[in-house]
Amino acid sequence: MKLTRLITLGLLVVAVTAAAQTRPPAYKPKTPPPARATAPATPPAPAAPGKKLEYVNGIADTGQFLADTTVLATIGPRTVTVRSYVNAYFAQYPEYRPRPDSLGRIDFLNSMIQKDVLGMTALSIPREFGFEDRLAMRTHTQRTLSNAVYQHYVLDSVKVTEDEIRAFYETQKYDQHFRHILFADRATAQRVRDEIASGKLKWDVAFTRHHKGSGKSDLGWVEQTSMPPEIAVRVYPLKPGEISQPVADRSWWHVFQSVEHRPRTNVPPIESMRTLIRMTIGGLRTSERAEAIQVVLRARIGMRYDTTAVQWVSTRFGGSNMGMETGPGGSPSLSIADTVPAFSAEDTSRTLAVWNNGGRLSLAGLLKAYTDLSPVSRPIMNTPEAVQGQIDAIVLEPYMAEYGRELGLEKDPEVVAQIERKREELLVKHMFSDSVESKVWISKADRQKYYKEHPSDFTTYANVRFAVFAENSREAADALAKRLRAGEKAEAILAADSIAGIHRGSIQVRLENEHGPYHKLLFEEMRPGQVTVEGPDRDGHFAVMQSIAFDSGHLLPYEEVEGLIDESMQNVRGEQMLKAMLARFMARYPITARYELLQRVKLVDPTLDE
Description:
The protein has 610 residues and is an alpha+beta fold. It has helices at 4-10, 82-91, 102-123, 131-155, 162-170, 186-197, 203-210, 229-235, 274-301, 307-316, 345-348, 363-372, 384-395, 397-406, 413-435, 444-453, 474-485, 490-499, 519-525, 558-586; strands spanning 55-56, 59-60, 71-75, 78-81, 174-183, 218-222, 247-248, 253-263, 304-305, 322-326, 332-336, 351-355, 359-362, 463-471, 505-511, 531-534, 542-551, 591-593. It folds into four domains: 1-47 and 55-126 and 409-456 and 556-610, Triger factor/SurA peptide-binding fold (Orthogonal Bundle); 162-267, Roll (Chitinase A, domain 3); 304-391, no CATH class; 460-551, Chitinase A, domain 3, CATH 3.10.50. Helix 3 (102-123) crosses helix 15 (413-435), helix 5 packs across helix 9 (274-301) and helix 10 packs across helix 13 (384-395).
């Protein structure tokens, strides 16, 4: 039984219920963490004089916005604060967020109240978890602990000081003349780099022997803004003659040498670049810190890659799975490819990594984890390092969680809250299934009645089949139109054009809900058989069009849409039952909501704050 629209309504506690409570103070584990990246203490930068007035969603920030701890609603023992409201709002996918106007804000607060009501009610109903629930809880706990290690000992340990920002800003004041060598893997890049730096190997000889790309070693003058930020932050501070450590982009490992500097003009002020510089340096530090922890974990479990297999797998994956394509009417749209390279059964059995006590990851295991990700979340894996990164993510997660337990993070209030949130989500799911989903049943007579009363819901869109030709002059367009009006078939003209190597037209089918050029003409003005000449366009071209056939839409047979009718009626009845259930449950709890405060909530994504 499918209740598509109700799934979102039924799982009302996902990522929100516990977040609606005031966040407790951060837990400080007693177990000493691994060595952390530290930065020299520096006094805060003085506030800039004459600070400009900031605007939030078009509204001037004059101090009217509420503090994060302000309570917007109480639901029994629970509260919704400004912080939890904003976090929950931006935790949703953009397409599911209500509008940020007054009605949208009220609707969202009401949904948070309903989620808490369902959550507290589900917790009050005794229920034993089955195998699938216990597996879900174990997986969630493992991931939560792994994320907590990353948060505490990677993200929280990365600090970028004002001195570091200013030092990197100084590199904006000159251009660099670079030369470089490209390598397929880090180990070779490091070895060759060290040989060059020690004088054992000449640069030109190293380039001839080891360069994996095309082109010359000398890159000429390179502006910092033309380099990827993660590379610029490493190599632009080089002094003339210095050689960089190996740095990676999406395809290669690079070793750079600075040849010379020259001053730049029109350097932007530091104020306009401070945030970008902080993000660039912070991102690099985060990657280094995460790798340092992974090195420790790999050593603890004795993990080893099969580098030959890893290299081979990386050659089978392409580049980005996202791109731009032209949609209806010529508008650009984002396309996401969900294709995965095909491998034989023999290939998928290949071992990619092994570790202590018989641990092994095969290509089949890597592909399973990769395809479980949504296409937009899948990493690019066209380099050995990228494949190893995905292997690390799969293999090291349980050991990262174990490491988190050793550090005492199981007692971190945020970790506890996230685990309890998952437990509550599962309980709500069961309550929804027992109280709503299992009780929704639609009879055949009801389905037939719905079909008769809602014919427009099951009628196809109108569509038109037409031919269109492009001509470069009015004379040629009129001549072609005359041939069509005389009864010559568009199909015959196109076939003759194809034999002669001419490409000037096509036969197309367009649905009424698809919008493209000449839409009104095709659906409202032309009749089957009619020919028209349109143009010229801004390039001087003419379009010769003929409507071949028109279908105004037809009612689909009942047998074809019976399943759709059943699902639609289940959604309607299930939603009615859910609303009635919510009304009963809400009467059990004292609820107050301060709707008048919602317009004073600073509705800005908290992840964008510095």
